[in-house]
Amino acid sequence: MTQAVMSEMERNEVLDVMIANEQSGKLSDAVEGLRGDEREFATSLCAYADDFAIQTRQRVRRIIHQHPEAYPAILSLLRTVLKWIERDRELGRGSADLDCLESFARAIGKDIMSRSWVTQ
Q: Cα–Cα distance between 118 and 23 in angstroms, integer?
């Protein structure tokens, strides 16, 4: 997705999703200590954080699907991300967050690969 190809509205949408993604990560980190706490406020906050994360991921995927011209660049980026994840695991830095990121990256790659056959 180059700026020359994207309209101002599309650039704003991408910026909004980037901000939402950052906020989602901070919110998930903030409620992590409450997971497993059975009190109503704790379960409510965790559920909200999870729902916000799901909505943000769906927005990211929708934007990606709207720009098939960017699929090669996105696939290249996903390969790099997967290499970083593997390197972190080899260094003993595995975590649930890495597992989630890997699943998300692989799901996006799978979506792109299935759609790229349709657009050719």
A: 34
Q: What is the DSSP string of 90-112?
A: HTT---HHHHHHHHHHHHHHHHH
**Are 3 and 11 a contacting pair, CB within 8 Å?**
yes
The structure tokens 């200590």 sit at: 33
Q: What is the pLDDT of residues 22-70, one digit of tens each?
A: 899 899 889 989 999 999 999 999 999 999 999 998 998 898 888 888 8
Does the pLDDT of residue 4 top 60, yes or no? Answer: no
Task: Give one DSSP letter per residue of 69-93, joined into a string.
Answer: GGHHHHHHHHHHHHHHHHHHHHTT-
Whether the CB-CB separation of 60 and 21 falls below 8 Å is answered with yes
Please give the pLDDT value at position 116: 61
Q: Is the dihedral of CA 108, 110, 115, 117 positive or negative?
A: positive
